[in-house]
Amino acid sequence: MYAKFLRPFLFRFDPELAHDATIQLLRLVGSFYPVYYLLDKCYNAHSHYTQSNISKINILGLQFTNKIGLAAGYDKDGLAWKGLTVFGFGHIEVGTVTPRAQSGNPKPRIFRIPDESSVINRMGFPGKGAEFVARQISARKTQRSSAILGVNIGKNKDTPNEDAAGDYLSLLEKFSGLADYIAVNVSSPNTVGLRRLQARDNLESLLNQLATKRSNLSNSPPILVKLAPDLSDIELDDALTAILNSGMDGIIATNTTLDHSGLKFPSKMQTGGLSGAALTTLSQNIVRKISLKISNQLPIIGVGGIMNSDDAKRMLDSGASLIQIYSGLIYSGPNIVKNILQEI
Question: Which of 6, 50, 87, 107 is most buried as measured by Cβ atoms within 10 A of its Cβ?
């Protein structure tokens, strides 16, 4: 029904407008229990299986109900996370959150590529800021869902790289006690200069400061680092060394790619980060490389181009402990989590 009716209807509208409308609808779903209950019965795999048939996963000191999560970028301001849990996600990652509200890059900034089941975005971390997001998730311990909630953090656009640590440190402090884990985003291609924070010296300095900060916080969550798919082997080695040396808890791979070479004209000329099916092979290869290089020292959350159960299986076989989807939800619809769980 989604592919035949709802997706064609949504795709008639500007991508960002359609997305914002969906977020508002899911926000209402999360606050109105009768509708939440009905949708949960329709879409949530946990409504169709007994608990004994779904293995819980213990990773990062946390208990995940299943291996499938929602990637950062979908619910940037934590508005819809309660409604999104009806689809059966084992974890949801909100953000990217910046310390202060910012508008992001000029519109239009999201572009669908239906022939490739892919998306290009150059959002630039638009959002209402840390204080707003903290209010959205502050009462979640009293909510119905058992889904793990992560918060993806990044620096403000006008914060120079030499001062970026201050933004990340303030966000770690803000969300300690609220988030189940923190994801450090140094890999978005849409904030000028941000990816330079992945260089070994820069990354090691940032992560060491975060490690020191969390040692002085109560209720400090696990910290994961989200990496780009466009790193060379040497750059990847340097980033992994910095992550291991600083005592971080896990890796998220990957963010969107700037490599549009596989796209047809004119899509390949559009600027921004590419996600969806066009990223599938690249992200799987990076996860496989990381898994071989770190030899099970840290868990990996695999993300990028997971559009169906086959993609999910290959990402897990590549070495991911958990997976995340985003574009798969856009193109395959709300049944995607249930369908993947039925297959894996």
Answer: 87
Three-state secondary structure call for residue 92? strand
Is the CB of residue 235 less than 8 Å from the CB of residue 285?
A: no
- 8-state DSSP, 212: H
Catalytic residues: 188
- Residue 244, Cβ neighbours under 10 Å: how many? 15
User: What is 2-343's CATH superfamily?
Assistant: Aldolase class I (3.20.20.70)
The answer on pLDDT for 64 being more than 60 is yes
The mean pLDDT value for 322-342 works out to 93
Domain boundaries, the chain: 2-343
CA–CA gap between residue 97 and residue 152 (Å, rounded): 6
For residue 301, give both structure tokens. 């959350």
Q: How far apart are CA 305 and CA 321, in angstroms?
A: 16
User: Mean of the per-residue pLDDT values for the chain?
Assistant: 90
The alpha carbon of residue 23 and the mean position of all alpha carbons in its chain are separated, in whole angstroms, by 16
Count each helix (H run) and each strand (E run) in the chain, helices first.
Answer: 12, 13
The answer to whether the CB of 78 falls within 8 A of the CB of 35 is: no
The pLDDT score that the predictor gives to residue 315 is 97
Rounded to the nearest 10°, the torsion over CA 41, 47, 48, 51 is: 180
CA separation (Å) from 60 to 15, 51, 74, 176, 289? Answer: 35, 21, 23, 15, 21
**Of 291, 286, 223, 298, nearest to 255 (Cα)?**
286
Could you tell me if 173 and 220 are in contact, meaning their C-beta atoms sit under 8 angstroms apart? no
Distance CA 107, CA 243 (A): 35
The whole-model pTM stands at: 0.93
Q: Which of 310, 266, 299, 302 is nearest to 282 (CA)?
A: 302
Can you read off the two tokens belonging to residue 21?
Answer: 């409308």
Report the candidate in 127, 120, 135 with the shortest Cα–Cα distance to residue 156.
127
- pLDDT tens-digit series, residues 69-87: 999 999 999 999 998 988 9
Strand order in the sheet with 273-276: 110-113, 118-121, 273-276
CA distance 277 to 282: 10
What pLDDT shows up at residue 200? 83
